[in-house]
Design goal:
- It is a single chain.
- The protein has 702 residues and is α/β, with parallel strands linked by helices.
- The protein has three domains: 239 residues, 3-Layer(aba) Sandwich (Rossmann fold), CATH 3.40.50.300; 173 residues, no CATH class; 182 residues, no CATH class.
- Helices cover 44% and strands 21% of the residues.
- It is built from 22 helices and 23 strands.
- The strands form five sheets. Strands 11, 12, 13, 14, 21, 22 and 23 form a seven-stranded mixed beta sheet that branches. The protein has a six-stranded mixed beta sheet with strand order 6-7-8-3-9-10, with helices on both faces. A four-stranded antiparallel beta sheet has the order 2-1-4-5, covered by helices on one side.
- It is rod-shaped.
- It binds adenosine-5'-diphosphate (ADP) and magnesium ion.
- Magnesium ion binds next to α1.
- Adenosine-5'-diphosphate binds next to β2 and α1.
Length: 702
């Protein structure tokens, strides 16, 4: 190795410089122990760092095996560091996360060599530490650590070992042992030792080069054998590659080194990511899905489809009223009938049979009860108000298929013309208790069969209300609607069931000039229900629209007006939390990378390429990303569940407003990966450009 007129000046600031080497020339032999001696600040470390490829220089040149350092490519430099040099630092610079053996083997693994473990064991045996393979560096004494560092340097069988004050941190006796070890190694290779200890240099050095103020102040045997330089040796560039296993191990432990910071960062990231997931769910707000989920969650049995004519009310003097949030005119509406072809549409979309229903009070037939006093007595005694009605509420035209889908049993048959009716079980119960009078005769009714064939007086309903016109209609069937106890609590407000309907023939409602609406029993297939809800919400026009109602559910106002607002709020929130999430996690990862600078430098000094180091930090960052994503993915449904519960508990609003959507599961991993990259890439790119010596120095200052 030849050194020509080598110089290096450190830049302290813009106009302040510190010259460290001022034109140094000498030649180094192929083997032997060379000491570089000098006071602190004389430039010894600078020189050693340059010779070992850890740092750059400004002037002059170094020729190694016929090749100029100036001509080295990045790959050449990695290969030179990894393949030709071993470096022993004063502070050992072992990687604390790896075991002793792994520290030694790493150098070989970086070269992609197999049998790294075997070689590492033999190198450890050479320094007298064969039993320490599985120990952690932290459990060793200083002398033992330095032996491990030497084992790491010799495991690659390097041509040169560079040692920068290898005994500086050791006591006299241990220091002598280390130097003896290096002396033994120098029989087969060149060992360059930096020291300020003249005694040791005299004892062990084959040659002593003295530095003072960046210049050579003395050389004990400057005339060294001249090397043949015709061999245009190529510096072997073995394919470097850090095994993912090690990258994982180092990457993970990096984070676990500060458990409190790790946990805090995870909690903050999970919080930010959960809010992001939440806002994404809000952004994915889907009226049809909300309505459908609510139907099933509230245990509704039927859903009704009404139709309305909408118009902008002409409020005298005040003009048109605009909705304060969305800014569209508020419309008023009149219920209109669901037409036959619309019934067909509803049946097609929902794959259910639809009943035509009209709600009104029909209250004349109870005067046919034979013994009303007995009925009243029974009611008082037994609190018997659950399966008993004095009046019916509304007409229903339905098919047997509808009854089957609703799970109802029919005794007899459904009416075929406008003089026939089928009654619900609760009206039958009234006559079972009180008996039935017809044409002055009293009949005992024991079951559904007994009442079939009898007549009941049914008042004729007109669009303006009931008339005094009464028609006797023959009972042809009884529908068992399984009305349980309490099913008539709040009967009139919640008429979205069949317990108290009178079943009439097809076309009856229309013939009376009444506006029927459609009712289906809830499909088993939620998808069918959601399609129906979509169909209903999408069918809005300027002049008319549908509306869905179900037992126990308030009017659904979101469909047209507020879905828009909610969705947009969701998008804005998502953007904000996306930024937050990335900031939190990115910042944590960036801090971890900065905290691991020294490792980065050691790895680079051992010959790891920039790619290898990047692997470690990216793998670590991605692990964090995965943890955060898994926690959020698991938390999100729980959070949504409790928010829904909270909303319905604190308001009269029973909607399942938030339902889990696929959107967060696409965006969350993306955001996690983006923040992992955003956190680690800037630091990686910054330090990737610097020399190992610079990185280690910065790492030590930290
Ligand atoms: P030694 O190892 O002999 O103690 P160094 O090679 O470390 O000496 O330093 C030589 C000179 O270069 C000293 O004056 C020192 O202050 C300066 N120097 C070393 N490293 C840096 C650095 N990173 N930045 C600025 N000046 C430096
Ligand atoms: Mg030094």
């Amino acid at each position: 190795m030849k050194i020509f007129n080598l110089s290096k000046t450190y830049k302290l600031s813009k106009n302040q410089t510190a010259p460290a080497l001022k034109g140094i020339s000498f030649e180094l032999p192929e083997r032997g122990m060379v000491f570089i001696l000098g006071r602190s600040g004389s430039g010894k470390s600078t020189l050693l760092n340059i010779l070992s490829g850890l740092d750059g220089f400004d002037g002059g040149d170094v020729i190694f095996e016929g090749k100029s350092f100036k001509e080295f490519t990045d790959a050449d430099r990695n290969a030179y560091r990894n393949g030709c040099c071993g470096f022993v630092f004063q502070e050992y610079n072992l990687i604390p996360e790896l075991t002793v053996g792994e520290n030694v083997a790493l150098a070989l693994e970086l070269q992609g060599k197999k049998h790294a473990e075997k070689s590492a064991r033999s190198a450890l045996a050479d320094v007298g530490l064969e039993d320490y393979y599985c120990r952690k560096p932290a459990t060793l004494s200083g002398g033992q650590k330095q032996r491990v560092a030497i084992a790491r340097a010799i495991v690659k069988q390097p041509k040169i070992i560079f040692a920068d004050e290898p005994t500086g941190a050791l006591d006299q006796g241990t220091g002598r042992d280390i130097l003896q070890l290096l002396k033994n190694l120098s029989r087969e290779r060149l060992v360059v030792v930096v020291s300020h200890d003249r005694e040791f240099a005299n004892e062990f050095g084959d040659r002593i080069i003295e530095l003072a103020d960046g210049k050579i102040a003395g050389d004990s045997s400057p005339a060294t054998e001249s090397r043949t330089e015709n061999s245009e040796h190529k510096v072997n560039a073995p394919e470097c590659g850090l095994p993912i296993k090690h990258a994982l191990k180092i990457g993970c432990r990096n984070f676990l080194k500060h458990p409190l910071r790790f946990v805090t960062a995870i909690i903050l990231s999970v919080a930010a990511f959960s809010f992001l997931g939440l806002s994404l769910n809000i952004a994915a707000f889907d009226s049809a899905k909300v309505y459908t989920d609510t139907l099933y969650n509230t245990g509704a049995q039927f859903v009704s489809i009404h139709r309305y004519h909408s118009f902008v009310p002409d409020i005298e003097g005040s003009g048109i009223i605009f909705d304060s949030i969305v800014g569209v005119p508020i419309t008023d509406d009149d219920e209109i009938k669901v037409e036959r072809e619309q019934f067909a549409d509803i049946e097609n979309v929902s794959a259910r049979s639809a009943a035509a229903v009209y709600n009104c009070n029909i209250s004349r037939f109870q005067r046919r009860v034979a013994d009303m006093n007995y009925v009243l007595k029974i009611i008082r005694q037994d609190d018997f108000d659950d399966c008993l009605q004095f009046s019916a509420y509304g007409f229903a035209e339905c098919s047997e298929q509808f009854l089957k889908e609703a799970g109802y049993e029919l005794t007899g048959r459904l009416p075929l013309d406008d003089r026939e009716i089928a009654i619900p079980e609760c009206i039958l119960n009234l006559f079972i208790i009180g008996g039935l009078t017809e044409d002055g005769e009293v009949y005992k009714i024991a079951d559904a069969e007994d009442i079939i064939g009898h007549k009941l007086p049914i008042e004729q309903i007109t669009p303006t209300g009931s008339s005094n016109d009464i028609a006797e209609m023959t009972i042809v069937g009884v529908v068992d609607t399984h009305c349980g106890h309490g099913c008539f609590k709040g009967t009139i407000e919640n008429c979205e069931h069949m317990h108290e309907k009178l079943f009439v023939c097809s076309g009856y409602i229309e013939a009376k000039g009444l506006n029927a609406y459609a009712m289906i029993s809830l499909p088993e297939d939620r998808g069918a229900m959601q399609r129906l809800a979509e169909f209903v919400f999408d069918s809005h026009s300027q002049t008319d629209h549908y509306e869905l109602t179900a037992e126990g559910m308030e009017d659904f106002e979101f469909a047209d007006l507020y879905a828009y607002v909610i969705k947009n709020a969701g998008y804005y929130l998502s953007t904000i939390f996306f930024i937050f999430a990335i900031l939190f996690m990115g910042n944590f990862i960036a801090a971890s990378v900065r905290g691991q600078l020294k490792q980065f430098g050691i790895l680079r000094a051992t010959g790891a390429s920039f790619k290898d180091c990047a692997k470690i930090y990216l793998v670590g960052a991605l692990i964090i990303a995965v943890i955060v994503f898994i926690l959020c993915a698991a938390l999100l449904p729980v959070i949504l569940h409790y928010i829904n519960i909270f909303i319905s508990a604190t308001s009269n609003f029973n909607y399942t407003l938030l339902s889990l959507n696929y959107l967060p599961y696409i965006v969350l991993p993306l955001a996690a990966i983006v923040s992992a990259l955003a956190g680690s890439l800037p630091a990686l790119l910054k330090y990737g450009k610097q020399t190992p010596a610079e990185i280690i120095r910065k790492g030590q200052i930290k």
